[in-house]
Amino acid sequence: MWVQRLVSGMGSKLPKPPKGWPKYLKDDLTKQQPETLREIAQFADELALAKLEAEDTDHRDPSETPEDWDDEEWDDALDDAYDEVEAPRQKGSVTVNVIDGRGYYYLKGS
After folding, report:
1. Ordered per-residue pLDDT tens for the chain, 110 residues
2. What are the residues whose beta carbons fall under 8 Å from the beta carbon of 54, sequence distance 6 or more?
3. 0.70 cut: is pTM over it?
4. Exposure string (b/e) for 41-62, b if CB count within 10 Å is 16 or more?
């Protein structure tokens, strides 16, 4: 097992993984070739960015009209949505998820 000899021969030169990482992740990463580790690092960066973008949400007051809508059109759409979930306007909230620059609006009735 050349990988084990290589890792064993490196001694204290290997960085220690963060505390709390699962054993399978720590063990498998130390077995990888440098090029594979670079690919893993790039993938991890891209994955982290995608997850951060997916979490890019904000809560808006339902009375705020989105940029691409006119006020009357937005009010009608909200009225229809509140009727569908059978919630009074005081008890609902609009959540906006922004993914790739597009806003997705969700109505949650309480």
Report:
1. 334 445 555 556 888 888 898 888 888 998 999 999 999 989 888 888 777 766 655 545 555 777 778 888 888 887 888 787 777 777 767 776 667 766 677 777 65
2. 97, 99
3. no
4. eeeeeeeeeeeeeeeeeeeeeb
